[in-house]
Amino acid sequence: MGMANPEFLKGTLDMLILRTLSRGPNHGYRIALHIRRLSLDAFRVGEGSLYPALQRLLINGWVQAEWALTDTNRKARVYRITPTGRRQLAEEVREFDFILAAIARVMEGA
To answer: What's the whole-model pTM score?
Structure first.
């Protein structure tokens, strides 16, 4: 099995990032690695997608960021989900579940 369609990832990336950050603060590389590992390599989030998404989440007030040292003693921007981001995540999960159920109904009736 290969990678997921990049168009699908675009539509779910904010939700995946917010879900990852709901587990605790993290920096960009670790966010991408977490998504890749849990998706069993189906979602490989590149810098060209990840950092614009994180910037969008910052602008929307769904995450906050601060500079900190990583485990390897490198300076990195660490992101943290906000209460508004948690509400947004809950809404996106509801919408995603609705869409998945609709797809399942169509597939079962095909």
So the answer is: 0.89
